[in-house]
Amino acid sequence: MKMATEREAINLLNVLHIRYRRIDHPAIWTMDDPNTPPGLPPVKNLLLKQKKRDQFYLYLTDRKRVNFKSLADQLEIARSRLNFASEEELESLLGVVSGMVTPLALMHDTKNEVEVLLDADLQQLPEISAHPNINTATILMSYQNLVKVLEKMGHTPKVIYN
């Protein structure tokens, strides 16, 4: 699969008339990266899988650890079957590498293999942050605009309670 690009992420936002702010910064590879600019919304992105069958894109606040038991119960699957996706799966499904996982890369999931899960607490944030397929910039938008973008990409998100 071709890698996700910044240009296609920005083009998507512009075509959908999504209002956003952009912050450029040094590369951010983890949630605790010292290059993270102060004041960014506290979110994290994970690509999970159920063994070799189903993939789940989980977007939640970074104040929480993932409660895998609760998540598995809500998805009606066994906890033992829920794992993190590999680097190869990130690249083949979304066209990104670790440290660049973003909801904007879901445009590469053209076969709709990934179910999008949004933590209910995201709705309380004044803005949601997402990389534009690169980790040297952050896009800030409203939760409602994030949902609009996801739905235009064919991914109606499921709200989960972590």
UniProtKB/TrEMBL annotation:
<comment type="similarity">
    <text>Belongs to the PRORSD1 family.</text>
</comment>
<keyword id="KW-0648">Protein biosynthesis</keyword>
<dbReference type="InterPro" id="IPR007214">
    <property type="entry name" value="YbaK/aa-tRNA-synth-assoc-dom"/>
</dbReference>
<dbReference type="InterPro" id="IPR036754">
    <property type="entry name" value="YbaK/aa-tRNA-synt-asso_dom_sf"/>
</dbReference>
<feature type="domain" description="YbaK/aminoacyl-tRNA synthetase-associated">
    <location>
        <begin position="43"/>
        <end position="148"/>
    </location>
</feature>
<dbReference type="Pfam" id="PF04073">
    <property type="entry name" value="tRNA_edit"/>
</dbReference>
<protein>
    <submittedName>
        <fullName>Prolyl-tRNA editing protein</fullName>
    </submittedName>
</protein>
<dbReference type="InterPro" id="IPR040285">
    <property type="entry name" value="ProX/PRXD1"/>
</dbReference>
